[in-house]
Structure formats: C-alpha cells, structure tokens
Amino acid sequence: MRTLTYFVATSLDGFIADPKGGFGDFLFEGDHMTALIEEYPDTLPVQMREAMGIDAPNRTFDTIFMGRATYQVPGGRPSPYPHLRQFVASSRLSTTPDDVEVVADPLAKVRELKAESGLGIWLCGGGRLAAALLPEIDELVLKIHPIVLGKGIPLFAGDFPTARFAKASTRTFDTGVVFTTYAKADTA
C-alpha cells in the first residue's frame, strides 16, 4: 500500500504561508536546499527542474495532491508538476487547462490512490486539505524554517481529529532549517 506524506515547509509558529498564500519569507538558499534537491527532486516544480537541468526519475513520489490555492499560486504555471500524477482538491474548480485532475472528495480519492501500487503520494498543501486528509496521512516531513510569521495559513486548519505521530528523524542545517520526519503512531 502506498503512503500519503505531508511534505511541507512551515514557520516556527506553524504557518505554511503568509495570509495571502505567499511563501517568500521562507529560505530558498543554503545547505537545506542542496539536500532537498538531491534527496527530493520530485518535489521541485517544473520551472525549477528545467532551470537546474534536473531530469532525475522520481525517487519518493509519483503523485501529488494539492489544494486549489496551492495549485493556483500567483505567478504559477499550469501543470506545475508534470513529472507527477497531479490532483487538486476543489469545490470551486471543475476542470483545469492542463493534466491536473480536479477532485471534489479528497478523502475518497486519497484512499483510492493509496490502494494502487506505485511510489508515495505527496500532500503539498494547504492547511484545510491537510486537516481533511489527516486520517490518511502516514508521514509528516516538516521543513521548519527559522522564522515566525505571526499569522498566515496554518499547517492544519479547520476541525480535525487528534492524531499521534512519532518522531522518526531530525536533520538540522547551517541555515537553521530543520527537517523533521514523523510517522503515524500505532494507536492499537
């Protein structure tokens, strides 16, 4: 069975973006970026992959699940991850001008995808979608940036059940960014 991983950058105070959905305050240079590029090339959008000459095969993920606001990031381009099977959860969109499939029931779709064979499923954002999919999230990979935003889009937003995770690993970089991985805790 495939896993759903919420792989996301967050501030120290738990925000994945500023109130308008921007993430320009996060760090995009330094040793954590080198690790990201080397270890998770599948998480780079097509414009970064093209600019860096990255044509590596997917290592971790072959599918991406994102919320409408993540998909429609200002200045974004259609089909931001053509090297992945792309899904966008939305009740506002009915179609997209590219190869991104719109999903009205994200929980049902993720359960269907997890039953298929393949690499992992990357939950890219946002906070409301993460809350809705929390029962199916198997792993959190938090790229914690040394910044306090004070307000913005929270890591999880809305009503959701309590879920326990166990720390699997932590890596600290010279930039101050910390990658921490948590696996869903056994609740049995």
From TrEMBL:
Pfam families: RibD_C. SUPFAM superfamilies: Dihydrofolate reductase-like. Residues 3-179 form the Bacterial bifunctional deaminase-reductase C-terminal domain. It comes from the Bacteria. Gene3D superfamilies: Dihydrofolate Reductase, subunit A (3.40.430.10). InterPro entries: DHFR-like_dom_sf (IPR024072), RibDG_C (IPR002734), Riboflavin_Biosynth_HTPR (IPR050765). This is Dihydrofolate reductase family protein. The lineage of its organism: Bacteria, Bacillati, Actinomycetota, Actinomycetes, Pseudonocardiales.
